[in-house]
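Thread: quick sanity check before group meeting

JM: Hey all, I'm pulling together slides for Thursday and realized we never actually wrote out the predicted structure for the chain we discussed last week. Dropping the sequence here so it's in one place. If anyone has concerns about the input, flag it before I start.
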Amino acid sequence: MGSWQVVSLNCPRAAYRAEGDTERLIDILKELMDNAVELFKIKIGWMDKVAAAGRMPFATQQPKDPVTGKKGAIAVDIDALVCTIGVVGINEMVRYHVGTQLHESKDAQKLALRAMIEMEMYSKELSQEHGIEIALARTPAETTGQRFAISDLLHVDYKEKAMEVVQGDIESALRDINKSRDLPVYYTNGTHTIPGANISLIDRIEIEHPFFSIVAGGNILHIWLGEGAPDARGLKEFAMNISRNTQVGYFAFTKDMSICQNDFHLMSGLKDKCENCGSTDIEQLSRVTGYVQAVGGWNNAKKQELSDRMRYQVKGLV
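JM (edit): ok, ran it. Output follows.
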């Protein structure tokens, strides 16, 4: 209940439109933010009418004080709700614009930081100008990263450009794009390096941590673990190092798991067959963005991302 509305920006498409002109790229990103503000105004105006008509009973309920029995403040502080602008595909944006991904060059990292800082400053200008509190955040993109990528692959003006930067199995996606929209291609979440970047975890943190001080929320550092049993002391020491020595404000250690639905045997890693009873009735679990969920419910883009992930051994973290 923290936001009235979240509007996500297709950042790679902004790069396609800018055609290598950095100032034009920044202007297009700001133009997209202007469009988001117009949507926010419509949403707030609509919700004000809904609230005034008493048609928002859960959010506007006034729980009673357990001691006095008197009604207190409404459950949701409507005046404190913000409007959130989220970013998707910063890595693919800079890849198209400068020719390299975040983990491949300092130029890509510098452009990403400049774009995010420009947007963060502009969000403050828009907040003051329109009297709306606007937050710049990283969109979780469970589905949005896939939808933006497929939308660009379907667009006559952007297809060839998107093919240069889209992540995942582009060959399969192009083969099936006229039969399905659930395809194994995606743009990278927010300001992340690509899941499969073959770099050390230290390098990944070094690239991603500066963005935490720019966005107002939604950002997370993913640490994908290998199949070995994590050492609790090693995890604790590494977590403390992240907290003390970087700007990372939110991070998660993720260990893939599999559960046999026949004998409920728990296994490390993503398994197709139970090592205990031999059953193939297996439920695989991993983190989709912020939460651990059954892989069977993910779309094909997220399943592809799961396959792409670079995993780290705990013994190499500290």
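AS: nice. The mean pLDDT is 93. The first strand starts at residue 3 and ends at 10.
JM: adding both to the slides.
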